[in-house]
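Quick review question:
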């Protein structure tokens, strides 16, 4: 079971997580484009359009995912996963609040972990550590324990919606 919490804006900059400016930008752009998402990096200290949580958190408006160099990479992949997991009607009307239910939120968290493996400068181990550091909370005590021991329902949801295939590989398509 997943229970997420946000980090207070005043604490956000002090948490040691990998940020957008720390990795190879073209590989992140390429990953997101495979799903029809356009990554737009804005200037430092400018409010991020479409950010639900504010501060340095990524934002979504339509098919554009906004970030700054200080945006946590886990936030970018989380918001991208929301876009991928929502139905076409919500995707067409998307502005800031991705919505979704409990099962979809679990699927989003699962997918962001899987997608992290496609970025050479990131990967699953770092994603799991960053999720814990950022304040995601899970009943089993860590993102890794949840992913490895309790997330079968999230994987099945992604397979049922066509985001993952029967072998749990990314299909590179948004929710069907």
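Suggested answer, residue by residue:
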């Amino acid at each position: 079971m997943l229970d997420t919490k946000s980090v207070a804006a005043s604490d956000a900059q002090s948490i040691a997580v990998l940020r957008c400016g720390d990795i190879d930008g073209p590989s992140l752009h390429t990953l997101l484009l495979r799903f029809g998402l356009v990554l737009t990096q804005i200037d430092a200290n400018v409010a991020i359009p479409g950010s639900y949580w504010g501060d340095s958190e990524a934002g979504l408006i339509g098919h554009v995912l906004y970030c700054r160099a200080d945006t946590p990479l886990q936030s970018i992949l989380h918001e991208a996963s929301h876009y991928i997991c929502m139905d076409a009607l919500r995707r067409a009307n998307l502005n800031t609040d991705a919505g979704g239910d409990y099962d979809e939120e679990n699927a989003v968290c699962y997918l962001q972990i899987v997608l992290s493996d496609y970025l050479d400068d990131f990967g699953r181990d770092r994603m799991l550590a960053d999720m814990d550091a950022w304040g995601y909370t899970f009943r089993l005590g860590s993102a890794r324990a949840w992913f490895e021991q309790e997330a079968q329902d999230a994987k099945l949801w992604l397979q049922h919606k066509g985001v993952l295939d029967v072998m749990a590989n990314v299909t590179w398509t948004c929710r069907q």
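Why it works: The first helix runs from residue 9 to 12. Residues 2-7+18-160 form one domain.
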